[in-house]
Design goal:
By secondary structure, the chain is an alpha+beta fold. It folds into two domains: 1-87, no CATH class; 89-145, no CATH class. The chain has three helices and six strands, in the order αααββββββ. It has helices at 2-8, 14-36, 41-80, and strands at 99-103, 107-113, 116-118, 123-125, 128-134, 139-144. The strands form three sheets. A two-stranded antiparallel ribbon has the order 1-6. Strands 2-5 form a two-stranded antiparallel sheet. A hairpin with a 4-residue loop joins strand 3 (116-118) and strand 4 (123-125). The protein is elongated. It starts with a helix and ends in a 6-residue tail after the last strand.
Length: 150
């Protein structure tokens, strides 16, 4: 069941992940309970579906939150360590330690694009998040540092 949930969580909202988990859990619970039932087959199957739906819904919710937290952490680490990803700052030949410098922080906007169709209904685009950098970070270089007199 977890493999089905994990494989289907990409670019999903919390609600979709929870409902997917509940649906998968209900199906698995109903199938398992039905196979194990010896009497009162219908009631046991329904009870198994209910328990499976609750367990699957909780599992889908938890898995979605863990994945979302990891993605957020990776994005944050990438934005603040651009040099380690091969992105040049443009200040390669300047010794920045000699200057009063600071880097302004980027502002990042997160948008969610709902699932929609394109190309006259021939393409299905699944809902996903899009991050946009608003106001790029910049180096601000002041005058050369002066040695303190003692």
């Amino acid at each position: 069941m977890c493999v089905i949930i994990l494989g289907s969580l990409g670019c999903a909202s919390v609600e979709r992940s929870t409902f997917l988990g509940a649906g998968t859990g209900a199906a698995m619970g109903a199938a398992t309970a039905s196979a194990m039932a010896t009497k009162d087959h219908q009631q046991v199957t329904l009870r198994g579906a209910g328990i499976g739906a609750v367990v699957g819904g909780i599992t889908g919710y938890i898995i979605h939150k863990v994945i979302d937290k990891k993605e957020s952490q990776v994005r944050r680490e990438t934005l603040f360590n651009l040099e380690s990803h091969g992105i040049s700052t443009g200040f390669d030949n300047i010794d920045l330690k000699k200057f009063d410098t600071f880097v302004s922080s980027p502002q990042v906007r997160e948008d969610y694009v709902e699932t929609h169709t394109a190309d006259d209904g021939r393409k299905l685009i699944q809902g996903h998040k899009v991050w946009s950098i608003i106001g790029n970070p910049q180096f601000n270089i002041g005058s050369p540092k002066r040695k303190k007199r003692q």
